[in-house]
Structure formats: C-alpha cells, structure tokens
Amino acid sequence: MTLAAQSSAVPSFRTRPSRSPWVAWGCAGLIAAALVLIPAVSPRADAHDVAVLRVLDKITARVSILNAPLHQVMQFGTLEIVARACDKRPPEETPESAAFLEIWEIRPGKPVKSVFTGWMFASTPGLSALEHPIYDLWVLDCVSKSDSAADSASGGNEP
Length: 159
Hints:
DUF2155; disordered C terminus; 21% helix; alpha+beta; membrane; single chain
C-alpha cells in the first residue's frame, strides 16, 4: 500500500460528519432531567435565631447563661454582646454550634473598646476565645426562638 493510500484510509478530523441537532437536544434534555430528579443537597449547617452563651465573671465567680437573639444587644457587666449569626450542624452530623459575635467593653469615662469580633465554636472554646482579664465567654448552642422561650419558661437557663 502506498503512502497516499494509507493516508486516505485514516479518517481525518476535518472530514468528521456533523452531528445531528437532535443529539445535542437529547443531551440537553438528559442533563435537565438529571437536575430535576436529583434531590437538593441540604446545607451543612442550620441557621438559628438565638445564640446560647455562658459567661463567667472571674472576680465574683458568677456564671450566667445568656440567650442572645440575633442582632440584639445583650449586657453582661461592662460587656455588650451582639450575636450576628448562629449556625448548628444537623443532628445526623458531628455536633457543632458556631456563633459570629461582636463584643465591646463599655466603661464610664472611657471610649468604647472592641474586645472580640469573630466566630466562636462550641466544641473548641479555646480556639477563638474572648481574651479579657475579668470575663470568659463561650458558645454553648444555637437554638430557635421557640426553643429558647420553652427553655426559659421551664427554668432551664441557669446551670
């Protein structure tokens, strides 16, 4: 076989027959059907309305539990605490609650001082702890407003 005969026996990419538009529509239809039939994946964490915080006054040894609704200012001693977000993993996953907190210290005659801004995790309080000479604060849980109201009514917000 000559070189010319060999080259004509090998199909060229340029001479590939064009595909029918029905093939393209068929692929698009299969993709659309798959997107509709595949269930939506649930988010990794559920957002809640209330951050449950434990606060320790190191001077008086007073321990309190605060139910901090999102975006509302909570006062503890000279601290003002605002929870901006509170997420909790679903029950089928490893337990974890995390809250995004903003904490300021307000002392009479002194300017307002930001002492903490960031995420706190219930499982690792030392990872992102409030570093303060008088107060310790950490996240216990994230709950819904209805759960928080039921807990308060049963007297369950004190240790």
